[in-house]
Amino acid sequence: MNVGANQKLKSLGCGFGVEPATFRRYAKRRGDTQQGNEIMSDAAWYYAVGSEQRGPASADDVALLIGRGEIGPDTLVWREGMSEWAAARASLPGSMVPQSWVDGMSSSAANPPQVPTSVGSGGAYQHPDHPFEVWRIVPKRFLQFRGRARRSEYWYWYMIIACIAPILAIVLLIPVGLSVEAAANGDPELGAGTLFLLLAFFVGFLLVNLSVSVRRLHDVGRSGFWLLLVLVPYIGIFVVTWMLAWPGQKQDNKHGPA
Question: Which domains, ranges and CATH numbers included, belong to the chain?
Fold first, then answer.
């Protein structure tokens, strides 16, 4: 604050304890915006951590919090005179904004990220809607029990299984025959190894079908535990199949975006 402004404030009976709003009006009349920013920086700031309000914090405290990473560019802040909470990068005076925030804003504006087709708990999620895409993607998600699977993804997968089932059955009979022949020829280790590989295939196949079924139920807003209805004799499998045929919810649900 320059000497002339200080003497003027003292003559008004304000001294250094002048209210920010009063000084800003005086600074505006003088065109002294730099001094107005200094007073605004000295205001008591409040900031949010999750849903918890913290503060008040002085300008020096805010600088320390920024340095420790407790206040970031998108942290909501508020001070007297603001109508609502706003992001720190847009609310703090220029003298309080670190250069890294400015560089980050410039970098983000120059190189925006690619817009994903859908975002779930695991980040960008691709919904395959073509049989070849289903054949390529679904087996890779054999351990993914979160998220959603559209009706096309689920039924395309089982359509593919139905088409290759005869060939798959013939192929699987070969290791079974080899294991039986190895056991008959006195080579139980070869037979056990072959059966182990066959068992590993069946476990993987079961996980693929189980995971896509759970994600299909998520898409209609149901828990994967509804699959346990298949254990109910006679009608359980029909009820589950009926639920798997429901159209997916058009809005986002707790299992992921639409």
Answer: 1-34 (no CATH), 42-110 (3.30.1490.40), 125-244 (no CATH)
